[in-house]
Amino acid sequence: MKLESLIFSLLSALTSVNCFADSVFDSILLQVSPEDKFVFYSHGYIVEGDNPKPVETKNGWGEYDFPAIKKALADDSYTLVAHHRAKNTDPFEYAYELNKQVRTLVKKGVKPEYITLVGFSRGAFITGLASDKLSDLGVNTVILAGCGRLVWKKHTDIKVYGHVLSVYESSDKAQSCAALDKKSTQTRSFNEIEINTGLSHGAFYRPLKVWVEPVKRWIKSNKK
């Protein structure tokens, strides 16, 4: 199935998503309200494929518990959209489709400030790409241990917009997003959190409170 067909295989017609708060969906809904809030979570590269709980053995990061992360990120104040990407998904194509999903919601009346893009590692790269494509809307952007590719020389044109939050683990190679913040001159705000678990990249493989709680608190904060 083509990427676009897969991502836009919408659920059956539903009423306003307010009645589906604290639920997790694979794609956006057909009917929404201007007061509905959405969070899009993009997982790391290792999850691409058929297994939602793959195990990384080379670096000792262990199991990536995608189902548990979705459950932890879900909240009764917004609808979480967390699509399981196919193996070797092109990040640029996926970011383009993510951009189209967000624009579909906005056309249906959802306020851009009520939409947040969250991504870890490869998913953070996708999130940054989508944020760049949505520069005119300025949706909220959360980068989890994924600024590296966003600041490579060949990606110097990529910037993030809206209110931005970066979270990184001190023992991980993926460090501060300061360089991304410096080149993204039109953000509405930029905040960064360093966590210290000693788990390197694997800190985001599971829904640890040390990163899940501040991310959810930031998402739900009043960012006008």
Automatic annotation (TrEMBL):
Say which domain of life the source belongs to.
Answer: Bacteria
Pfam families, from UniProt? Abhydrolase_8 (PF06259)
Question: InterPro entries given for it?
Answer: AB_hydrolase_fold, DUF1023
What residues does the DUF1023 domain cover? 61-179
The residues forming the signal peptide are 1-21
User: What UniProt keywords apply to this chain's record, in alphabetical order?
Assistant: Hydrolase, Signal
Q: In Gene Ontology terms, what is one molecular function of this protein?
A: hydrolase activity
* This protein's name: Alpha/beta hydrolase
Q: Which organism is it from?
A: Pseudoalteromonas caenipelagi
